[in-house]
């Protein structure tokens, strides 16, 4: 067998399914004796809806997260739910999945196990977490050029990605203010790209190694966006490590708290209209944070790190490292620079996500210097 290693065939199937899903092509999801076409609600149009509907064996349904359902008026909702789609109406789907002023227009029913896996496929594909599920029979889809994937393969994909994490390249890359730096590239983990460990200096692996888990932020890290403090945290961490006997920064493919760059821009659009950063994400169907950090701990283990000083304001990252079996011997706060565009964002991270941010100390950094 060409792909005989345990779990490899399942990973390949999910990899291909993600590509299909992001390209607005239906994926055949199978498990528990069921088969259904699943496709992204954000990418459907009238023509695709009509073609899919001809294959249906029973009514389609729209699967939405608890966060989106709460915004649609289903108060207190804590689990995903479904809305029946007697007819696949692309306009109705877009309204329920994306419109700010939309409200539930039909009873909300509990989501099945298959519906939950369909949402996971959307999250892995970094598209909007709103999915159309269309029950089908084997006979109805026979001969159709559909990619099939099992529920078990999708459900186990994240764990398989961690298990298969491997170093695929490394090289010295001198940085401004940190000339003795090595980039180590890993294949696997979260997101759709590679992960990078930036080893600054020569950290002593026998002690608590200064470590920062830094989620990629294209707007802040590269373009200097004033809406966040990510670029400041990135550069200040590398500079601090260079001046303090080294450390490791993990640059992780988790744009927009794990929502992806397109959803991050949707959230930014809502923020420009006055929404809080977390409320904007909830409008789109996301909870506070979609990120996972188990693969980051595995990256550190492969680099020989077992004990860390965590450079972070986020208690979730500290807990994730501990849960993954690493010892967090100490922590250190990482402050950016407040400005008129990001101070509400920083306060929201403190008040709603429990980030350890001393706003008084932060504001002193913005005070004019003598």
The counted number of beta strands is 14
- Roughly what is the average pLDDT, rounded to an integer? 93
CATH class category label of the largest domain: Alpha Beta
Cα-atom radius of gyration: 22 Å
Q: SS-based structural class? A: alpha/beta
The residue fraction in helices comes out at 25-40%
The appropriate CATH architecture of the largest domain is 3-Layer(aba) Sandwich
State the fourth-level CATH superfamily of the largest domain: GTP cyclohydrolase II
Distance between the termini: 72 Å
Features:
370 residues; alpha/beta; DHBP synthase; Rossmann fold; 2 domains; seven-stranded mixed beta sheet; 17 helices; 14 strands
Describe this structure in words.
This protein has 370 residues and is of the alpha/beta class. The chain has 2 domains: 8-158, DHBP synthase (Alpha-Beta Complex); 165-254 and 291-364, GTP cyclohydrolase II (Rossmann fold, 3-Layer(aba) Sandwich). The chain is 39% helix and 21% strand. The strands form 2 sheets. Strands 5-4-3-6-2-1-7 form a 7-stranded mixed sheet. A 7-stranded mixed sheet has the order 8-9-10-12-11-13-14, sandwiched between helices. Helix 1 crosses helix 5 and helix 12 crosses helix 13 (277-283). The mean pLDDT is 93.
Question: What would a concise description of this structure say?
Answer:
The chain has helices at about 10-20, 45-55, 65-70, 90-100, 115-125, 140, 150-155, 155-165, 220, 230-245, 255-260, 260-270, 275-285, 295-300, 315-325, 345-355, 360-365, and strands at about 25-30, 35-40, 60-65, 80-85, 110, 130-135, 145-150, 165-170, 180-185, 195-200, 210-215, 245-250, 305-310, 325-330. The protein is α/β, with parallel strands linked by helices and about 375 residues long. The mean pLDDT is about 95.
